[in-house]
Amino acid sequence: MPRGTSTNDLKRRSANHKSRNYLLIVVEGEETEYNYFDSLKRELKLPLTTTIKIAPSAGGDPLMVVNEAYKLYQENQEKSKTGNTIKFDQVFCVFDDDNKPEKYKKALTTAKKYNFTAITSIPCFEFWFLLHYCYTTSPFSSYKELCPKLEAEMRKAGILKQGKNYDKSDKSLYEKLRRNQETAINNAIKLENKHPNEDGCTNPSTKLHILVQKLQDQKEFK
């Protein structure tokens, strides 16, 4: 050990070297969103300089996602004081309106107050999946209205066999969709440019491309 260097100094340097970028992603539930980002994270094989924590929240309430993120953020802040972890660099809250407009708007304002990044979709997360196959500006009243359109596009692409329905709990969804990921990103950017979504309440809309690109960028993080 070099003179004047303590064991704690070495531990701190090692932790900083391995995790210079620490991201928290909180999603609704433990199925669709969690499986999607977990698969994306594994595929990217991010360098040791980046750590990503993906956490599900209990229930399908957009405000609960933000509250769970705040709880984890506070716990992280306390642990960082003891040197057991480094602080989160950025917190992302992934949620949609769930036909609960008041709680959705409250979730947006609460996330902004905490300086968290809200990654929203209207009417639902599956709108991001739909953009993998087509560009549309048509509003959808709910997941139930959007789902048949998504199933039709997935069947057309040969991803979904005839007679089979879309399964939210399918752990291989990311693998099935990833070949069209750039199409989805381009469609989302096009939609954002043509139908501005400054307040996060435009139907249809999604900001998932922002988070996907953020994670892709971590591969270049030095």
User: Helix amount, in percent?
Assistant: 40-55%
Provide the low-confidence segments as ranges. Answer: 1-19
Number of strands: 5
Structural class: alpha/beta
Listing every helix as H and every strand as E from the N terminus to the C terminus, the arrangement reads: HEHEHEHEHHHHEH
Molecular shape: globular
Number of domains: 1
Q: Tally the helices: what do you get?
A: 9
Strand content: 5-15%
Mean pLDDT figure: 89
Strand order of the largest sheet: 2-1-3-4-5
Summarize the helices and strands and which ones pair or pack:
Elements: H1 7-18, E1 21-28, H2 32-44, E2 50-57, H3 62-81, E3 90-96, H4 101-113, E4 117-122, H5 126-130, H6 143-156, H7 173-177, H8 181-194, E5 205-206, H9 208-217
Parallel strand pairs: 1-2, 1-3, 3-4
Antiparallel strand pairs: 4-5
Helix pairs in contact: 3-4, 8-9
Walk me through the structure:
Helices cover 48% and strands 14% of the residues. It is α/β, with parallel strands linked by helices and 222 residues long. α3 packs parallel to α4. β3, α4 and β4 form a beta-alpha-beta unit. The protein is globular, with a radius of gyration of 19 Å. The N terminus is likely disordered. The chain has one domain. It has a 5-stranded mixed sheet, with helices on both faces. 32% of the residues are buried. The chain is built from 9 helices and 5 strands.
Fill in the keyword field for this structure.
222 residues; 9 helices; five-stranded mixed beta sheet; alpha/beta
